[in-house]
Amino acid sequence: MTAASENWTIATAADAARARALLARLLADAGVSAFDRVRFLAALGARLRAGLAADGTDLTVTAGAGGELRVALGGPEPWQHTVVCPSPVAAPPSGLDDAPLAEALLDADADADALLARLTETEELLGFHREELHQTNQGVLALHAELEAAARAQRELLDAERAARAEAENARRLLTFLANASAVLNASLEHEDILRRLPELLVPEYARHVDIWFMDDERTAPGERAAATVTAARTGRPQHAGPHPAELPGVDDLPASALYPDRPLLCLPLGARTVQGVLTLAAPGDRFDPDTTVMLLELARRAGIALDNARRYEQHRDVAKALQRAQLTDLPATRGLDLAARYLPATHGLNIGGDWYDAFPQPDGSVLAVIGDVTGHGLRAAVIMGQLRTALRAYAVEGNGPAQILTLLHRMLRHQQPELYATCAIARFTPGEPGVVWAAAGHPPAVTRGPRGEVRVLDAKPGIMLGVPVPFTYEEHTLELPAGSTLALYTDGLVERRAAGIDAGIDRLAQAMGALGGADLVDLDAAADAVLKPMLHDSEHDDDICLLLCRTTQE
C-alpha cells in the first residue's frame, strides 16, 4: 500500500472544524486511543487557530503505508506531526465538505468523557500516591528523628566513654605517681633527705612551690606563716585558702592568704600520730583539681609516716650511739704494752651495732684486751653489749682467765638472753712474760706481726659463739710475742664484705699488717690508721668495725 496524501485549505473556522472532525474520524478508525486523539486534536486545534489568525493556512494530511498519519501545516509558522496508529489509516478524503460535524461533536464528547475518566483515575491514583508519599515522608521523618536520636545517644555514649577513659587514665597516673613517690619517701630514714625530696616530687606538676613547716622549728614563728597553715597545724585538718571556695573533698575552705592573695594554697598536716608540721602547696594553676587533691592528701599522710619513722629512727640511733660510745672506754697506759683502738660505725642500715672493744688491768697486774660483737643492730644490741662488757669485767676481777671468762659469759647469755648470740676474743698480757694467753668464742682469728715483719694468722679453732643453746667449755691458747710484736684483734666488719668472703678479707688484713713500717712501728695509732686504710678503700661497709692493736715493748 502506498501513501495517500491530501491538501486541505483552511480559510474559515468551519474549515478548521471540518478538518479536525475528519482527522478525528481517521484516527478513531485506525484504533488510536481517545487520550492520544484528544491530545493530538488539541495541539492541532491550537495550530489551526493560529493559522486562521494569519488569514488561513494549508493542511496536508498523509496516510502512510506503515500505519502512521502525518499532518503538516504551512504558513509563517510551519508545523508537522506524525501519529503512529495501531491499525492502517484510511486514505484521507479529497475535500472537507463531507465532514460529519454532528457526529464529530458527539465523538468529541465521548473522547472528553474518556479523558475525564482517565483524569479521574489519574487523580485518584495521584491522590493515592500523594498519600503514600505523605506517609513515606512521615516515615522518613520519623526514621530521621530516630536516627538523629540514635546518633545523639551514640555521641553521648562516646563522650561518656572518653570522659571515663580520661578519668581512668588520670586516676592511673595519680596512683602511679603516689606509688612511686611513696617508694622514694620510704627509701630513706634521714629526716632531712625526706624533706629535700618532697619538693622535688611535687614541683612543678602538682605545686608551684612547696613549704614545709614544723611546729618545733624555732627559726620561724607561727605569725610568719599563712593563716591556713597555722589552722591546719592547730586543727589537724587540711585547709584550702583562695580567692574562691574550692569545695575540695576532705578539705576546709578559708579566705585567701594575705601572703598569696591571688594563688590558692593547700595546707596538709604532717604526722603519723600527732601533727608535727604542715605541708603547704601553692596551686600550679588557678585552682586545685579534686582528684589530685585526694592523691595529695594521701601523699601527705604517707610523708607524715615516713617523717615520723625517720624521727623515731634518728632518736633510736642517737640513743644507741650514745650508749655504745659510753661503752668504748679509754685504753689504759700499761708497762710493757702499747694499745690503740678504732671504732667505725656501718655506712648502711641502722649504723649502730653490738661491736665493742675493751682493755683493763686485772688484780694480778696482767692486762686483758677484749674484742666482741653482739648479733643484730640497734639499741637492743648496744644494751646487750653493755651487759656483756660489765659481766666480763666482773668475772675478770675474780681472777678468771680468758677461757673461764668466756665459759661464764656463755652460760649467762644462754640463760638470760635466749636467741641472742655474740662472738668474743680475749687476750691476757702479763708483765715480764714474753707470751700472750688467749681464747675465742666464734670470733675471727687474730693476726700477729713479729718484730722482723713476719705475719701469722692465729688459726686455732675457736669455740662456739656465746649464747648458743648447748653447754660448752672454752680452751686457752698460748702464743710467744717477743718485744716489738703486734697483735691485731678485730670484728668481722673489718674483713667481711658482701662481694667477697671473710677469708679474702683476713688475707688483706695480713698483708696490711706485713706492710707496716717506718713511723707505723713507732706510733701504734699511726699503725692503726695504716691498717684501716687499705681495708676500707671502698669506704662502704655494712657492719660496724672495731680494731684493737696490742704491741709488746721492752720494759
Summarize this structure briefly.
It is built from ten helices and 19 strands.
What does this structure look like?
The protein is α+β, with helices and mostly antiparallel strands. Helices cover 43% and strands 21% of the residues. It contains ten helices and 19 strands. It has helices at 13-29, 34-53, 101-186, 191-202, 227-235, 290-327, 379-397, 402-416, 502-514, 524-535; strands spanning 4-10, 57-63, 68-73, 79-84, 210-214, 239-241, 252-254, 265-270, 277-282, 337-344, 353-361, 367-377, 422-429, 435-441, 447-449, 455-457, 477-480, 486-490, 545-552. The strands form four sheets. The chain has a five-stranded mixed β-sheet with strand order 5-9-8-6-7, with helices on both faces. A hairpin with a 5-residue loop joins strand 3 (68-73) and strand 4 (79-84). Helix 1 (13-29) packs antiparallel against helix 2 (34-53). The longest helix is centred in the N-terminal third of the chain and has 86 residues, at 101-186. The protein is rod-shaped. The mean pLDDT is 85.
What Rg is obtained from the alpha carbons, in whole angstroms?
A: 60 Å
Q: Order of helices and strands, N to C?
A: EHHEEEHHEHEEEEHEEEHHEEEEEEHHE
Structural class: alpha+beta
Gross morphology is rod-shaped
Give the DSSP E fraction (strand runs of 2 or more residues).
15-25%
Give a count of the beta strands, DSSP E runs of length 2 or more: 19
Strand order of the largest sheet: 5-9-8-6-7
Q: Biggest sheet, open or closed, and with what strands and sense? A: 5 strands, mixed
**Helical segment tally?**
10
Percentage of helical residues?
40-55%
Q: How confident is the prediction overall: mean pLDDT? A: 85
**Low-pLDDT residue spans:** none
User: Between the first and last Cα atoms, what is the distance in angstroms?
Assistant: 170 Å
